[in-house]
Amino acid sequence: MFFGILLLLIGVVMLLEKFHIIYGDVWDYIVPIALIALGASSIFKSRRHPE
Protein backbone atom coordinates (compact mmCIF):
# COMPACT_ATOMS: atom_id res chain seq x y z
CA MET A 1 0.00 0.00 0.00
CA PHE A 2 2.88 2.36 0.77
CA PHE A 3 4.37 2.11 -2.72
CA GLY A 4 0.97 2.75 -4.29
CA ILE A 5 0.56 5.96 -2.33
CA LEU A 6 4.12 6.99 -3.13
CA LEU A 7 3.58 6.40 -6.85
CA LEU A 8 0.35 8.37 -6.68
CA LEU A 9 2.10 11.33 -5.03
CA ILE A 10 4.93 11.24 -7.56
CA GLY A 11 2.42 11.20 -10.40
CA VAL A 12 0.53 14.16 -8.95
CA VAL A 13 3.73 16.18 -8.55
CA MET A 14 4.78 15.41 -12.13
CA LEU A 15 1.34 16.38 -13.43
CA LEU A 16 1.37 19.65 -11.48
CA GLU A 17 4.77 20.45 -12.96
CA LYS A 18 3.52 19.60 -16.45
CA PHE A 19 0.62 22.08 -16.05
CA HIS A 20 3.06 24.71 -14.70
CA ILE A 21 1.35 24.88 -11.32
CA ILE A 22 4.66 24.17 -9.59
CA TYR A 23 7.99 25.26 -11.00
CA GLY A 24 11.49 23.92 -10.86
CA ASP A 25 12.93 20.46 -11.02
CA VAL A 26 10.40 17.71 -10.28
CA TRP A 27 12.99 15.73 -8.30
CA ASP A 28 13.25 18.62 -5.84
CA TYR A 29 9.64 17.83 -4.86
CA ILE A 30 9.74 14.04 -5.11
CA VAL A 31 12.55 13.42 -2.61
CA PRO A 32 10.87 15.27 0.30
CA ILE A 33 7.53 13.61 -0.52
CA ALA A 34 9.22 10.21 -0.45
CA LEU A 35 10.84 10.95 2.92
CA ILE A 36 7.56 12.19 4.39
CA ALA A 37 5.76 9.11 3.08
CA LEU A 38 8.40 6.79 4.54
CA GLY A 39 8.15 8.49 7.91
CA ALA A 40 4.35 8.40 7.93
CA SER A 41 4.40 4.75 6.91
CA SER A 42 6.72 3.81 9.76
CA ILE A 43 4.62 5.76 12.27
CA PHE A 44 1.39 4.08 11.20
CA LYS A 45 3.00 0.64 11.15
CA SER A 46 4.29 1.10 14.71
CA ARG A 47 0.81 2.11 15.89
CA ARG A 48 -0.77 -1.01 14.37
CA HIS A 49 1.83 -3.40 15.74
CA PRO A 50 2.96 -2.19 19.17
CA GLU A 51 5.99 -3.99 20.54
Q: Give the oligomer, counting copies of the same chain as homo and different chains as hetero.
A: single chain
Number of helices: 2
Could you list the spans in which at least 5 consecutive residues all have pLDDT below 50?
Answer: none
Spatial extent as radius of gyration: 13 Å
Give the H and E element order.
HH
Describe this structure in words.
- It is a single chain.
- With 51 residues, the chain is mainly α.
- The protein has 2 helices and no strands.
- The chain has one domain (2-48).
- The protein has helices spanning 2-18, 27-48.
- α1 (2-18) packs antiparallel against α2 (27-48).
- The longest helix is centred in the C-terminal third of the chain and has 22 residues, at 27-48.
- The radius of gyration is 13 Å and the shape is elongated.
Quick overview of this protein structure:
The chain has 51 residues and is mainly alpha-helical. 76% of the residues lie in helices and 0% in strands.
Distinctive features:
2 helices, single chain, 51 residues, mainly alpha
List the helices and strands and how they pair.
Layout: H1 2-18, H2 27-48
Helix pairs in contact: 1-2
